[in-house]
Amino acid sequence: MVSFPALEQPLNPFPHYEAMRRSDPVFQDPESGVWHAFGYADVQRVLSDHAAFSSRFSGDSPSETGQLFAASLINTDPPRHRQLRSLVTQAFTPRAVEALAPRIAALTEGLLEPVVPAGSTDLIEQLAYPLPVIVIAELMGIPAADRDRFKLWSDVIVSQRPDGDEDRSPGNQDMVEYFLGMIEERRHRPGQDLISSLLMAEIDGQKLSVMELLGFCALLLVAGNETTTNLIGNAVLCFTEAPGTAERLAAEPELLPQAIEEVLRYRSPVQSMYRVAAVDTELHGRPIPAGSPIVAWIGSANRDEHQFPHPDVFDVVRSPNRHLAFGQGIHFCLGAPLARLEAKIALQAVLSRLPGLAVEPGARLERMDSTIVFGVKQLPVRWQAA
Fold first, then answer.
1. Residue 2: pLDDT above 80?
2. CA dihedral for 224, 238, 108, 258, sign (positive or negative)
3. For the chain, what is the HEC assignment?
4. What interhelical angle do 170-188 and 210-223 show, nearest 10?
């Protein structure tokens, strides 16, 4: 097994990405042996060419590795990937997601209402974190009293490296035991939720294995939590940094979906994805031997000057905007419609309810401890209270 190299976690990694695109766009770390792809075309290929670049952590079968994500969608290849994905697709179709809009709007209003008169808050703690957690917890049928555990567990997961050791962490053990208990409870008392639906599901006449069920639970927890939290937080940073942007979007809310796409490009909530070369192949003229681990740097690809004119400028009306923030190919993010909807509703409320929104002067923003996801731990903001 391999691990990510020890990388610095600056709040602004983009100058480093640019330097790598210019000097060594496909680079092998001599210490770890891990390959890194930084250019748009190379990242796009690594993410989409599953015949050459496998999503599996290792050559072992998922049930043998014992890894938390090994049997989940994100780390399987066809044909199993296609079978597993089909089981949850219906829950995340645009139509199914749109039906959640009234509930998301009500939750957003309930979270913002107490702080509107105050004129300041930590927007991550008050809105960007709890909103996606509540939505995904309700979809999974998780009791409200257990939601606080989600933050701890998902933070532990995104700070880990794919080196096979993650299941030994106490946080993961707690999560595995919790979901095993939840799965067992739903076996006896099924409900109208995703866990119950997955328990009932069959592929070729066979039920999902316990590892596959756990993989789904862990993936839904993180994908439905960290990424949308960071999308909302990163959007507020983008809107408040560029003079007049927040005011323009408040006055022209029809521009918000396009602005969200630019946030996804400019400050991608997922910065990197991991693959393994399935066969001897070549990338940007470099031979990549079979079995080689490779990191596709989405955050770098989305700033590639060959794909995006003036890539370091945040442009709310950028078009076209073929960013790779949700991945590419068969692993394109299943929850993209939900993330976009939650961000649109949350940000529209923020812009309309919090006039004059700005990051607190002098605030020291700290990046999350992860090479995979990208966002700030806290986001202290202020506005003109009525």
1. no
2. negative
3. CCCCCCCCCCCCCHHHHHHHHHHCCEEECCCCCCEEECCHHHHHHHHHCCCCEECCCCCCCHHHHCCCCCCCHHHCCCCHHHHHHHHHHHHHCHHHHHCCHHHHHHHHHHHHCCCHHHCEEEHHHHHHCHHHHHHHHHHHCCCHHHHHHHHHHHHHHHCCCCCCCHHHCHHHHHHHHHHHHHHHHHHHCCCCCHHHHHHHCEECCEECCHHHHHHHHHHHHHHCCHHHHHHHHHHHHHHHHCCCHHHHHHHCHHHHHHHHHHHHHHCCCECEEEEEECCCEEECCEEECCCCEEEEEHHHHCCCCCCCCCCCCCCCCCCCCCCCCCCCHHHCCCCHHHHHHHHHHHHHHHHHHCCCCEECCCCCCCECCCCCECCECCCEEECCCC
4. 110
For the ranges 62-76, 248-262, 291-305, 340-354, the lowest mean pLDDT is seen at: 62-76
**Torsion from C-alpha of 167, 169, 171, 172, nearest 10 degrees:** 0
Closest by CA to 233, choosing from 380, 381, 382, 375, is: 375
Q: What is the mean pLDDT of residues 34-53?
A: 97
* Rounded to 5°, angle at Cα 286 from 285 and 292: 145
The amino acid sitting at 94 is: P
Q: Is residue 132's pLDDT more than 60?
A: yes
Q: Classify residue 291 as left (phi > 0), alpha (psi -120 to 50) or beta.
A: left
pLDDT digits (tens, 9 = 90+) for 225-282: 788 999 999 999 999 998 899 999 999 999 999 999 999 999 999 999 999 999 999 9
Res 62: pLDDT:
37
The full set of domains in the chain, from first to last, is: 14-382 (1.10.630.10)
Task: Give pTM, 2 decimals.
Answer: 0.90
Based on its alpha-carbon atoms, the radius of gyration of the chain, rounded to whole angstroms, reads 21
